[in-house]
Amino acid sequence: MAGFCGCCQSDNTGSFSATSAIAVDAECLLTGRLFLFYSLVCWGRSNLMKEKSPVFIVGPGRSGTSLLYRILQKHPVFEPQNCAVSVDLTESQVFSAPESIYDKERKPGVGAYSYMLFDDSLFNEFTSSLYWTMRWQKVLGTGVLSRGHHIFASRLSFNGGLRKLFWRLYRGPITVRSFFETARKARGVERILEKTPQHLQRIPEIKCTYPDCKIVGIVRHPIDVFTSHRRRYQAERGTGASGDQMKWLNFTVEQFCERFAVYEDIIRHENCRNGGSVIWVRYEDLTTSPQKTLQRILLFLGENYEEKCVVKDETKQLYWEIDPYLFDEIHTKTKDWRVFVEQGEAEYIETTLKPQMERLGYQRYSENPR
What we know:
Blueprint: H1 18-50, E1 55-58, H2 65-73, H3 112-115, H4 120-129, H5 131-141, H6 144-153, H7 161-169, H8 172-187, E2 193-195, H9 203-209, E3 214-219, H10 222-238, H11 253-273, E4 278-282, H12 283-288, H13 290-301, H14 337-340, H15 343-352, H16 354-360
Parallel strand pairs: 1-2, 1-3, 3-4
Helix pairs in contact: 1-8, 4-8, 6-7, 8-9, 11-15
């Protein structure tokens, strides 16, 4: 009998009384019913979202994903009605870091709990409905499945059946769909809009979870991307940020070129494979012709054009003050690359990434300084 149920108790003689047996049966029955109830709630919420078409913004870091996120959030179908400010730039990271989806840590601007606007009631409802799924993920997900998925997801060649198999074994689709349906209520939006740059490398998992989703990718001239990292690194260092906090901004020119080449490979691959569900936008087009570019994006998303999306936002958020351009009017030029990047570094980047730049339609800066 020992180990049959964690709630089983015996009397002092070591035998089970009739009352204890009844209590055990009742509690086991209740546990079974709760399991069934939570499973049905989870299944219902998941299937409710499966047929919907959420929008995911992806792209290399410092390429303008936050700017596009801010612009689209001012559209009526994406605007959070339950947010204290008109725009919330939180990155959920549910595809790039699925093991952290249940973390209830107050991290402004990042994480599932923050994306749900720190709504305790709905977040608890979400985690409770996935109790058994969460136990499965904690037992296996933190071990073989989680590590295996991250290994395969990090390799572009592993973009098909095996990656999806690991994602389904991890119960990723049902977890993420349940999360976003709850987050939709927490945020008070008609249609889910989410931005996490790292999700550029998780498009197979996104498509596995939402076959009818729309993905908006944004790209930018590599010199401007590298310059933006340099400027942000200097700004972060000026605030006294630790080395670990700035690690994502601190890398060599060689490392940057390797990453950019991988991102461009993903863009080409996904453009060929999922052309109907993925649209790629150049940052330069968004800043020089915002109305025209936004019309193109909204037509792709099946939404009406709204002029207010490209009007200056007066919102001020403390943790985004380090990037003031995000809430200012749209600028065609935000910085001079020569202030942050040496001429030799620029030449190395543009020589190394020449094929990628040509495919993306970019000219050299180092030979034609602005």
